[in-house]
Amino acid sequence: xxxxxxxxxxxxxxxxxxxxxxxxxxxxxxxxxxxxxxxxxxxxxxxxxxxxxxxxxxxxxxxxxxxxxxxxxxxxxxxxxxxxxxxxxxxxxxxxxxxxxxxxxxxxxxxxxxxxxxxxxxxxxxxxxxxxxxxxxxxxxxxxxxxxxxxxxxxxxxxxxxxxxxxxxxxxxxxxxxxxxxxxxxxxxxxxxxxxxxxxxxxxxxxxxxxxxxxxxxxxxxxxxxxxxxxxxxxxxxxxxxxxxxxxxxxxxxxxxxxxxxxxxxxxxxxxxxxxxxxxxxxxxxxxxxxxxxxxxxxxxx
Length: 302
Ligand SMILES: Nc1ncnc2c1ncn2[C@@H]1O[C@H](COP(=O)(O)OP(=O)(O)O)[C@@H](O)[C@H]1O
Ligand SMILES: [Mg+2]
Known about the structure:
It is built from 9 helices and 10 strands. The protein is α/β, with parallel strands linked by helices. The strands form 2 sheets. Strands 6-7-8-3-9-10 form a 6-stranded mixed sheet, sandwiched between helices. A 4-stranded antiparallel sheet has the order 2-1-4-5, with helices on one face. Residues 14-43 are annotated as: Disordered.
């Protein structure tokens, strides 16, 4: 069991080797450590900062003192068994979860204390990708991508309201994700992998400051899953935005992320660079409760 596992019960910093400041407030970046590999990712301040987050549905706690930082340019895999709280954590970042404590900052927005109208802005700035793609099946691929622009324009311009510039941009994004030749086809005629590329282009149409992808490859076969995750990672790096992607296949997480965070029963038990982890380190996330009297990682060092 590597020393990379820990239980960050204290607010900051999450990872001992993490050279970034835990709090976005300081004006000067923390000094770099001697870690060169992902160091350039960490020179910026985190775009998303979660501290001591608690979420409860009715009285049932679902997220328990969760800390998380997401930095520009990094692809972070979110792991955890079904029901561990992955989707709830993602929903917390866009104001869709009943937060009962702690703080969530996303692109400068204090999600737990939004001003009037700010929720809409927040959601327009965060691109989302879902397992079932959530396209409008009978509409063209191009129109589905253009729908991403409605986040900014409001719902009024749905029919014929897209500008030439929007259309050119949507086509360029379809080209970027490799399916420009499908622009005029109905979305339903595309394969699953192609539909997910459309959904990614739609998210990019928002000019997102971060992308949240909740199980984006769970409906795709392994080869297509690899390609979609590689695309998301490329977008993170090229556009300098954090991409948080929940996954349940460990090899995919190990192959396609810069960092892995892992939830178990709503607690963040893993937070480490992917290069420091292997499958055995992640077993704690899926450990059988019957054999784990305390519900915690054993041998965790921090
Ligand atoms: N809207 C909701 N109302 C009540 N309980 C919920 C709701 N959404 C999620 N939960 C509960 O929260 C826990 C975490 O769910 P979820 O975040 O969907 O986990 P994951 O995405 O890791 O499978 C589960 O026990 C689930 O039943
Ligand atoms: Mg889920």
